[in-house]
Amino acid sequence: MRLIQSRDISIDWTCLLMKFVGIWLAADQAEQRRRNAALIYTINAMCIITCVAFRDIYFSWGNVGDCVFIMCNISYLMIVLFKIAVLYTNRMEFFELVRYTQKNFWHSNYDFEESMILDNCRRISGIFVITLSFCTQGTCAGYMVTPLVENIGKNETDRILPFNMWVSFPVEKSPYFEALFTMQILCVYHVGICYISFDNFFCLLNLQVASQFRILQHRLNNLNSIVEVEADSNESLTRYARTYQAMLANCVRQHQALIEYCKHIENIFTRIILGQMLFLSLIMCLVGYQLFLADTPPSRSVGLFLNLFGTLVQLLMFTYSCDGIIRQSLNVSKAILSGPWPKLPMNRLGRILRKNILFMILRANQHCCVTASGFFPVSLETFTRVLSTAMSYFTLLRQQTLDKV
Questions:
Q1: Distance separating alpha carbons of residues 204 and 321, to the nearest angstrom
Q2: What are phi and psi for residue 3, nearest 5 degrees?
Q3: How far lies 71's CA from each of 193, 279, 320, in Å?
Q4: Alpha-carbon gap, residue 136 to 47, rounded angstroms
Q5: What is the DSSP track for 52-79?
Q6: pLDDT tens digits along 156-187
Q7: What is the pLDDT of residues 23-35, one digit of tens each?
Q8: How far is CA 296 from the centre of its chain?
């Protein structure tokens, strides 16, 4: 299935990354074969780099600096494999969610105010996606630049690879060195693509549904201007009430659809969110250790700094997008209260409409949210909690390092 032209770089870029991973919609059998081939390549790349990483930590055990660096790499591999496994298990529900999003969100049937809301969503998602992609690709480039810089001035027998191979044949000599270097860098870049693609798409969905809640508020506020009312005409009041009833019914259906949409997001991504929150707490501690406590080469420090900055951006992107769903779903009740319900007639139709408005307010007061496997709702407050946890881990690791010195 092809997207309607969105002119949204964040959507186009994220969908392209998902196609590289191999978990995306296919319009026909030929496209499905390409998706399967991409997924097979993804699994093979992950298996190769995982074997290299675990063999490296086995032979490097005892060297704290090297072990922290390798554990950081293994953590990235584990979270990527976890995301692929969860999303592939729920791929049918995920594809249905994508189809619904394409049909109901990514179109141009909006008025001027609604288009302004979506333009604001595009700007925010574009900033997040571009910044995270830049930091991730910069981090991957660090794995390539570090051995190239270290190999300057060395002979063929002293060259190093991005990751130690620990094999019997001479990996430092040509053509083994060039072949293994290319293989490792290709695997690293593909891990980077897998790492950000799912997170980008999840945050895009959150920002889109938060914008749809804002559009719903706009439509509820616009109910004031649906018809001119003559206060002294019962016929005009009745006609107004019927028009209001039809418009309100559309808003109620839209509200129910958004609530169900949030439930589907929760069902698909809730375990990924829990793993991601735990992972971000750990990775900030490990990267901070390499930057500020370990003897890290300057060529690697640039990549680590981009890694740390990208992790903060990713954490903010997660929590900000989830917090938007909470805030905008709660604001629906305020939009209902600002409607023209005082103008409704005091007959049977008016009483039914007021009762429907009351039910909608009561439901809107129960905010929609995305949770970390049901343990806690993700919001901007989660951002500070994860930072606090990461700092606690970093302080403990720093204290142990100072004690050994």
A1: 8
A2: -75, 145
A3: 20, 12, 28
A4: 20
A5: HHHHHHHHTTT-HHHHHHHHHHHHHHHH
A6: 778 888 888 888 777 888 788 889 989 999 99
A7: 998 888 999 999 9
A8: 30
